[in-house]
Amino acid sequence: DKNREHPHNGTNRYYAFLLVFIGAMAGLVLSSTLLGQLLFFEITGGCSWALISYYQSDKAQRSALKALLITHIGSLGLYLAAATLFLQTGTFALSAMSELHGDARYLVYGGILFAAWGKS
């Protein structure tokens, strides 16, 4: 009994990407460094693209590309935050954010918020 509207081709690929996505999302929220968060952020973006485009219809492909572009635009904020934090403190540790002052603090916090917008 097959579903004609949504054929089940490539379910192993789907579940593999879903598992990697779940692991990367856990890594994103549990990472203690901005560099780790950046790595997991990019992995979740790639997995989102693969999962959204799973059915390979034109609509799914367009939606996946849109999600990928928005996620990558959002990741620019995380790159900015990581670079600013490292240049100001010499480390990517989230705990170092308490050492920031003035404009650097706003750049890091703003970059993280911008990245969160892109991921949501």
Fill in the keyword field for this structure:
74% helix; transmembrane helix; ND/Mrp_TM; NADH dehydrogenase (ubiquinone) activity; Hydrogenase 4 subunit D; Helix Hairpins; 4 helices; NU5C-like; mainly alpha; elongated; 120 residues
What does this structure look like?
This protein has a single domain, classed as Orthogonal Bundle (Helix Hairpins), CATH 1.10.287. It has four helices and no strands. The protein has helices at about 10-30, 35-50, 60-90, 100-120. The longest helix is centred in the middle third of the chain and has 32 residues, at about 60-90.
Number of strands: 0
The helix content, as a percent range, equals: over 70%
CATH first level: Mainly Alpha
What is the residue-averaged pLDDT? 94
Order of helices and strands: HHHH
Going by helix content, strand content and strand pairing, the class is mainly alpha
Assess the beta-strand content as a share of residues.
under 5%
Topology, element by element:
Layout: H1 11-30, H2 34-52, H3 58-89, H4 102-119
What would a concise description of this structure say?
By secondary structure, this protein is mainly alpha-helical. 74% of the residues lie in helices and 0% in strands.
